[in-house]
Amino acid sequence: MISLMRKKCKMVEGKKLKTFKVQQILLIQARKLLFLRLGLDYHETMNSFYPCPGSHTLVISFSKIACSQSLLVLQSDDWDRDLSPWPAQGPFKNSFPGHADDFIRTMEKQINEAEAGLSINRRIAIGYSLSALFFLYAASVTSLLDKVACVSGSLWYPGFEEYIETHGLSQRTSAVYLSLGDRESRSRNPLLSTVLEKTQSMAEILKRKGCKVTFEMTEGGHFDNQEGRVSRALESVLLTEN
């Protein structure tokens, strides 16, 4: 299994991919950004996205992906630094440095390198937790993304609701998928407890600004059924027309 995982890691190098067979897998490091680059001839969605027991990895199991599709994984060695849009106090006495703009420039460079010589139809970004917040922020300051899936997004982030209300998203970003666990707001932490209110508010703000928004509630807390939530997000953004 380990050798298969390492072999499949080669698929993120930005080249066109061959059609996958059932149960082939791609190893992705945890707390990294999942970024899909898609063609028009998409066939079936990924059928699972789950944490690998006893390790900090995420494994994606594919059923079938057309050869014009590619997967780009963006890596960071400091999650709080690179995914936070501006300096802010965190929920657990931690502070966010707010260097997302720097990481967006890194993302742009890696996308340009990966897409060299390829004809790109659309780009879809899928993020969980703080990476979901990051992709919404990236969609507000760049015209890179066609769709964003924000799964259990850290929309409690101080000032983010007001920022999107003022700035909106790029005109290119036509659709946003939002989902949240029904117990995520049941927190004693005053910041985390606002996540449902903030997510609902975000959905309304984006709708008013002309974005197609899907908002779904799922069962559980922030760390429950991550594979099911991401799989549902993938299905929604991949199969929903622009």
Description:
This protein is α/β, with parallel strands linked by helices and 242 residues long. The strands form 3 sheets. Strands 5-2-8-9-10-11 form a 6-stranded mixed β-sheet, sandwiched between helices. Strands 1-4-3 form a 3-stranded antiparallel β-sheet. Strands 6-7 form a two-stranded antiparallel ribbon. The N terminus is likely disordered. The radius of gyration is 17 Å and the shape is globular. Helix content is 31%, strand content 23%. The protein has a single domain, classed as 3-Layer(aba) Sandwich (Rossmann fold), CATH 3.40.50.
Give the helix/strand layout.
Layout: H1 2-8, E1 25-29, E2 33-38, E3 48-51, E4 57-61, E5 70-74, H2 79-83, E6 88-89, E7 95-96, H3 100-115, E8 122-128, H4 130-141, E9 147-151, H5 160-167, E10 175-181, H6 195-208, E11 212-218, H7 226-239
Parallel strand pairs: 8-9, 9-10, 10-11
Antiparallel strand pairs: 1-4, 2-5, 2-8, 3-4, 6-7
- Oligomerization: single chain
Shape: globular
The parts where pLDDT drops under 50 for at least 5 residues are 1-31, 39-68
Helix/strand order, N-terminal first: HEEEEEHEEHEHEHEHEH
CATH superfamily caption = Alpha/Beta hydrolase fold, catalytic domain
CATH-defined topology: Rossmann fold
Distance between the termini: 38 Å
Number of domains: 1
CATH top level class name: Alpha Beta
